[in-house]
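Workshop exercise sheet. Pairs work together: one partner reads the sequence aloud, the other fills in the structure field after running the prediction. Swap roles for the next sheet.
Pair: D.N. / O.F.
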Amino acid sequence: MFKYLIGTWMLVLFLFIDGCRDNNSYQPVTQFDPGRDAAKDIQSALREAKRSNRNVLLDVGGNWCIWCRRLDQFFEQNRDLEEFMQAHYVVVKVNYSEENKNQEVLSRYPKIPGYPHLFVLDAGGNLLHSQDTGLLESSDHHDRDKVMAFLKQWIPEMAK
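Structure field:
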């Protein structure tokens, strides 16, 4: 009987420790993936935003979108902007494609005129801003000053 109780107790302790470890680690969504559950991804990002005092930046687009790929390349080439964005936002890629338009999730936000499109949410999930990324471009590329001004404008108040 004693061995049974010890074994049961050890199993419960192991499951508790394992469950705590998995629930506390946020896994960022860094790729447009039609198989992902965008609603769950956003809820997870909101929890992380509350924990880390950041806003949420929804990046809506798809792998089919050349300007989506250009925006990703822009941040790869401008590491300081990428670091600033990651410090102040929990970024979530939300897929929009023929395979998965995420209509239910995206219907909660204003109409999207083109892709990529950015939505800024506070940690409570309230929409703060809807950003047409075409306004962040100059000619055939994203404009560094415009992107940085956008990022600075929508950081959480306590970070300003």
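Discussion prompt: The two ends are 61 Å apart (CA to CA). What would you look at next?
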